Amino acid sequence: MSDGATTVDQPVFEIDAKVDEAGIEDLTTLDTIHEKIADCRKCGLGSMRTNLVFGEGNPHADLVFVGEAPGEQEDRQGRPFVGRAGQLLTRIIEAMGLKRHDVYICNILKCRPPGNRNPKPAEIRACEPFLLQQLDVIRPKVICALGTFAAKTLLDTDVPISLLRGKFHAYHGIKLMPTYHPAYLLRNPGSKKQVWEDVQVIMKELNIQVRPGES
Q1: Spatial separation of the C-alpha atoms in residues 193 and 162, rounded to whole Å
Q2: Confidence band, pLDDT 50/70/90 cuts, at residue 115
Q3: What value does the CA radius of gyration of the chain take, rounded to a whole number of Å?
Q4: Are the beta carbons of 126 and 43 closer than 8 angstroms?
C-alpha cells in the first residue's frame, strides 16, 4: 500500500505541540478571494458562523491539506485545524520535515456546520468553487485529502477511503492523496502507520527527505 514510497521509520505523532502562527498570504490573490467571500450567504451556514475559516499557510505551497469543514475551535478562532486533530496534523507535517507555514491548510467548507454534522450537497456546491479558486492561486503539486468525507467529495466517489488511500488520484489536474483524518487517528491510533505510508508517497513525489532528528 506504500506505492513505492521510501521506507522511513514511523514517527510518533504527538498532539501536545502548539500550532504555528498562520502563514503570510498573498495579499493580491488569496486575500482578494477571502474578501470576496467574507460576507458569503450562498448557503445557510454563513448566518450561523462565528468566523469564516478561509485557510492559511504558504500561498505558493507545493502541498495543500484539505479537510471537510471547520469544527468548534476553528469557528471560534477563524483558523483551520487548531483543535486536538489540528495539533496532530501539525505533528504529521513536522514529521515530514516541514512547518505549517510551508504548506497550505483549508477545508472544503469555510463555515462550520451546526453540531459538526456532515455538509449537505447544497453547501458543498456553494463552497467548492471557492476551494477551486484557492487552488488556482496556489497551484500546488499535491493535495492531501483528510478524511472520508473530503476524499469522497473531491473525487466524487463512494469508494471507501481504505481503498482510496495509498495512491494518487486526479482532482482538476492536481495529484490528490486521500488519507485518514487526524480526528480518526485520535480514535484509532493503530491507523497512524497507514497515514505515514501515505505521507511517504507524498514526500517521494515532492522530493522531500526527512533530515536526521526531524522525524
Answers
A1: 13
A2: confident
A3: 16
A4: yes
